Amino acid sequence: MTRQMYAEIAGGGIAGLTTAAALARKGWSVRVHERSEELREIGAGIFMWENALRVLEAIGAYDEAIDGGEKNEYWEIRDERERLLQSGWMMQGTRLYTILRSQLHRSLANAALRAGVEIVTSSRVTGATPDGELLFEDGRRTKADLIVGADGVNSAVRNSLGLTKRVTDLRDGCGRYLINRLPSDAAGRSLEYWNGGRRVGVVPASKDTVYLYICCPANDIAGKLSPPDKASWTKSFPALSSYIERLTDNGRWAGFSDVACRKWHVGRVAIIGDAAHAMSPNLGQGAGVSMQTGFVLAQVVSGAVDVPLALQRWEKLQRPVVDATQKFSRLYGRVGTRWPRAFLDVRSALVWGLGKSASLQRRINVAAHSDVTDTSGKRS
Ligand SMILES: Cc1cc2nc3c(=O)[nH]c(=O)nc-3n(C[C@H](O)[C@H](O)[C@H](O)COP(=O)(O)OP(=O)(O)OC[C@H]3O[C@@H](n4cnc5c(N)ncnc54)[C@H](O)[C@@H]3O)c2cc1C
User: Fold this and answer.
1) How far is the CA of 250 from the centre of ligand 1 (A)?
2) N or C: which end of the chain has fewer CB within 10 A?
3) Which residues have C-beta atoms less than 6 Å from ligand 1?
4) For 119-131, what is each residue's pLDDT tens digit?
């Protein structure tokens, strides 16, 4: 008879819950510790590319997660003169849905609970030890075969183990809002408009709501206001005025950061999600790759005799895809946010030209094309 394996997970966000569900479905006994009094997510939309959708299918959360969500059939990017720069951006051969974050989070929590995961709220983790101990604010310690730090960008688990290489403030960010959806709004289509360092995305996210993201550099004081300065945004994007005027006070601006780690694992501890590789959201993949790495982690450690060795293999498998996604996402942000104003026509020509290369788009969207079920290592 094989021994029951135990995992303790810090963080009940998208990464922690996905990993928990995937491990429990492999027969592990799993406990998730969330510092908040209840599990919750902000009200916004979220892009789910093929890799994330496959994970949702594999852990039995897909139907609940995408129920009422929008299948994106078309995506266009336009510049300050409303010229079409790209259409169908990165969508070749992959599915793309936009759904509500709260619904995604709930579907993951339900999948985890169905698989037998125990979720403990008001449980704040302060660190971990390489031999598999999780440490808590109230002085408790608990031991497990596997510890997972899924405690977000300021991860206490990562910091306690000295795994942080860099946390970089990317000097830009965005406000995320949900607005009422009108029958006249385009269905199945996402729009992204650029003007100077500002960008606005218009994305249907459910039957009743459209997700609007408004991005700008951190030094754009008017752009960062919450509630949004509608006059200022309409001036930048007159073609989107009918959407901008529907903005309310249901979101706020937040800056973007990149997290880089020396390693994602030490001993019996793995760090995943934003704790390991937070990235700007420009490619809509931060959560997608977090779900992917969490799912693959469960596949790789299951049945492994030596957990630390399995974690080494897991990082080797997943790191190239995640590092490339983080790098391209940062580059997208630089082009979209920091391009000199005097050369916007050059930017438009460049972005238009890049949109013609299917192979480049495939490289940029490497995560969506990666086979999350392949843990053989042949592709890495
Ligand atoms: C503007 C914006 C738009 C985005 N859009 C997309 C998108 O369209 N598609 C996409 O794939 N990704 C997107 N992302 C990225 C995505 O939101 C994140 O990558 C994802 O939420 C990370 O999940 P996580 O579980 O790793 O971290 P978090 O969501 O930060 O969850 C961490 C959890 O751990 C808990 N916690 C923290 N510290 C402790 C502690 N000490 N003890 C116990 N619990 C703790 C927190 O309360 C939280 O519940 C976007 C990000 C931003 C900022």
Assistant:
1) 18
2) N
3) 10-16, 33-36, 46-47, 124-125, 150-152, 156, 174, 176, 254, 273-275, 281, 284-288, 290
4) 999 999 999 999 9
CA of 42 to the centre of ligand 1 (A): 10
Pick the CATH number of 6-168+256-369 from 3.30.1700.10, 3.50.50.60, 3.30.70.2190, 3.40.50.1000: 3.50.50.60
Angle at CA 198, nearest 5°, toward 197 and 200? 150
What is the DSSP pairing of strand 74-78 with strand 118-120? unpaired
At 171-186, the pLDDT tens digits run 999 999 999 999 999 8
From residue 378, give the alpha-carbon distance in Å to each of 168, 291, 315, 375: 32, 21, 14, 8
CA 349 / ligand 1 centre spacing (Å)? 34
Structure tokens given for 54: 């496959």
Q: Whole-model pTM?
A: 0.96
Residue 174 near residue 198, CB atoms below 8 Å? no
Distance 162 CA to ligand 1 centre (A): 21
pLDDT digits (tens, 9 = 90+) for 280-319: 999 999 999 999 999 999 999 998 889 999 999 999 999 9
User: How deeply is 271 buried, as exposed, middle or buried, from its count of CB atoms within 10 A (0-12, 13-18, 19+)?
Assistant: buried
Strand order, beta sheet including 96-100: 45-49, 96-100, 70-71
Evaluate whether 157 touches 128 at the Cβ level (below 8 Å): yes
> In angstroms, rounded to a whole number, what is the distance separating the alpha carbons of residues 144 and 19?
15
- Kindly report the protein residue whose alpha carbon is nearest to atom 37 of ligand 1: 151
> What tokens were used for 273?
């999600």
